[in-house]
Amino acid sequence: MNMVGACWMTRLLGEPVSALSIDESNDIIAGGWHGVLTYWDCEGENNWSTNLPDRISSIASNEEFVFATAGLHIVAVSRKSGELMWQFALEGSADEVIIHEGRVYATSSVYDIEHNDFIDSAVWCFTFDGNNLWTKHMDERPWTIFSDSNAVIIGLGRPKMGIAMFNQDGDINYQQLAPISPVTFGELIANKPIFGHANGDVSSINGKITSIEGESIEAILADNQENLIIVAEHSINCLSNDASQLWSIKNIQPSSQAVGFEINNTQSFWYAHSDGLNGQLKIIYCDSGQQIAAMSCSKISNIVSSSNRIVVGNEAGEILVWDAEMLNRRLENEIDTDQDNHKKALRDRLKALKKR
Questions:
Q1: What is the pLDDT of residues 252-278, one digit of tens each?
Q2: d(CA 58, CA 127)
Q3: Which CATH number is associated with domain 9-354?
Q4: Sheet harboring 103-112: ordered strands across?
Q5: Contacts of 87 (CB under 8 A, 6+ apart)
Q6: Strand 163-166, strand 152-156: pairing
Q7: What is the pLDDT of residues 222-237, one digit of tens each?
Q8: Are 327 and 263 contacting, i.e. CB atoms less than 8 angstroms apart?
Q9: Backbone dihedral angles phi then psi of residue 261, each to the nearest 5 degrees
Q10: pTM for this predicted structure
Q11: Which of 135, 126, 65, 122 is nearest to 94 (CA)?
């Protein structure tokens, strides 16, 4: 299948894509390596583009603002106009940003080249208009940040490890997890916090769930059947909700991934890896791992999804968007064409036999 030909739209950011978001309205916001931030609405119209101080690493938005981490800064941009509303220099690199219960939270880290390690990290809390309410410093790098209904949750590196939970006043509650290993990933899955660790363990608050031996965990996702898709350094592994393995893909280095819309009435999983020179985009079924389609392009940095669209960003600055209805229609037409070609080949063979 010609995946590029099946794109709903293709846009150019003008520089390598470093951050990407899509909301359930299908509005797309993309950030680049040199600080360009661009907003396309659900119809593919470019509403605005603005320049931020440095490479954009994380994006979070609501109806009024787009928040981004850009180099050393957290930045707020008007969602309507793209106007820069405020920016605040953090201490060290600005890593991730999220929105939780009417406030903005960001993480930062300071890396010391001589020590070859992170020497200071912090969690920052802001109001939407840029007032820094509190800042909490820590020795551990916060490798991941997300929220549940009660708190903002930080996954910690060495030496403390485990997680830190912050309320709106900045009070911290530390909790050690059963795997004593740095938390490299965390996300709310089926309303429960799930964590990935540097030693390959996957855990919940209650204890270890499974382990991918010898590989650090990069990401954990879930499909609509609550099967876990665990992305590790060199593999992708799918577990059913009873922890039995459904399928596994080995000897790859995934660079980005997302659970996507249904294709042929089965939920899809999209992932990217590199073959050394180019980026490879693969689409498979969540339940079986069977490949649906694939394509080669520039190295892929980001994949994000809504309920009916998938967006891919790559180092060539391309923004590629696939729509559920359009892609399924193309696949149906391709199947019909293959069947027609097969029938024609059979008829031609019968005609050839009759002439003997």
A1: 999 999 999 999 999 999 999 998 889
A2: 18
A3: 2.130.10.10
A4: 93-100, 103-112, 117-126, 132-138
A5: 52, 53, 70, 73, 74, 75, 76
A6: antiparallel
A7: 999 999 999 999 999 9
A8: yes
A9: -70, 170
A10: 0.91
A11: 122
